[in-house]
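Sanity check

After download, print the first record. It should look like this:
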Amino acid sequence: MDEQLKPLPKEFYETPTLDLAKELLGCILVKETSEGVSSGIIVETEAYLGTVDQAAHSYQNRRTKRTEVMFHDAGLVYTYQMHTHCLVNVVSGPVDVPEAILIRAVEPFTGIDLMLKRRPVTNFKNLTSGPGKLTKAMHITMDDYGKPFYNSSLYITQGKKPRQIDHGTRIGIDNSGEAKNYPYRFWIPQNPFVSR
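Expected structure tokens:
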């Protein structure tokens, strides 16, 4: 572990999901690999409220190989494949309350050369301004599934709390009934790395 970047403790994640989705903003997502360490300031999140949220993978208690980790302790890594991308989520509900928070965008912080090597871009704003972009740049993969954010090579550390937080509807969930209108997306206003 990088001495400057200590993982937040397990207790940090034991917070109601909508509150945690806001608390994560400004925190730093860190990934250690054999190539080196990269990190990014979390600037955008989306909350998914499990069994009652039609947009959640675990809606109506859907328990599958993919969603299994969501039924475990808060603070675990939930990665899943979407098309060619791996997306990363924080498991946020207590045991058997399958909720999670998607990390939608980060602002590059350290290991930027390494991120650019993995994901060469001409416009720097495109490096980590979306959930699939940030995982590729930081080499977050399906191998991270189920690991604890508070004790693994993928972790979250304290950052600087944003002065202001905006919220609105989530992105890309048009087929989820009234859930598509829930204001469960949170972001740091004016940050250029917010996905949209």
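If your output differs, re-run the checksum step. Summary of this record's structure: The domain at 10-187 is CATH 3.10.300.10 (3-methyladenine DNA Glycosylase; Chain A).
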